[in-house]
Specification:
By secondary structure, the chain is α+β, with helices and mostly antiparallel strands. The protein has one domain (38-147): Hotdog Thioesterase (Thiol Ester Dehydrase, Chain A). The chain contains two helices and seven strands, in the order E-H-E-E-H-E-E-E-E. It has a seven-stranded antiparallel β-sheet with strand order 1-2-3-5-6-7-4, with helices on one face. The N and C termini lie far apart (34 Å).
């Protein structure tokens, strides 16, 4: 069974992503379409793993993964991880800052994995970090501060 994106979703039951929840934006004309469908699963209440299949549109002229794509994937992965950890209401939160450290060239073809951790949560903020890997090798690291979505009144 496929997920219905940010509106909810159940773990997939077939294929290489069995046990993961698929994340896709139900709106067809958003930037998420350029990144692609992500897959996520919670590892604990403060850790989650987000996966993504890479494709040729993610590459730069050197045939490695584009740095801008990796930054966009990182931003996407923070929200997918929060969602997987049970913070479903935070799909409408906003990124206040995002820092990237590029550690190696990623390739088109192998899946990317973002190991995401919430370092601290306050009343209004999440302080987070991640390591992006591909084939067991570090590709990038990131830190971010996410401003929580307002509570509906």
């Amino acid at each position: 069974m496929a997920s219905d994106g940010v509106a909810g979703g159940k773990p997939l039951t077939e294929g290489k992503w069995a046990g993961w929840i698929a994340w896709s934006d139900p709106h067809p004309d958003t930037f998420l379409q350029a990144i692609g469908r992500g897959y996520m699963r919670a590892e604990s209440s403060t850790k989650a793993l987000v996966g993504l299949e890479t494709r040729s549109s993610h590459r730069n002229r050197l045939d490695s993964l584009h740095g801008g794509f990796l930054a966009a994937f990182a931003d996407h992965a923070y929200f997918g991880a929060l969602w997987a950890m049970g913070h479903v209401e935070q799909v409408n939160a906003v990124t206040l800052d995002l820092s990237m450290q590029y550690l190696g060239a990623g390739k088109v073809g192998p899946d990317l994995f973002a190991d995401v951790e919430v370092l601290r949560e306050t009343g209004r903020l999440f302080f987070m970090r991640m390591l992006i890997t591909q084939d067991g090798q570090s590709v990038a690291a990131s830190t971010a501060t996410v401003r929580k979505a307002p509570t509906p009144r």
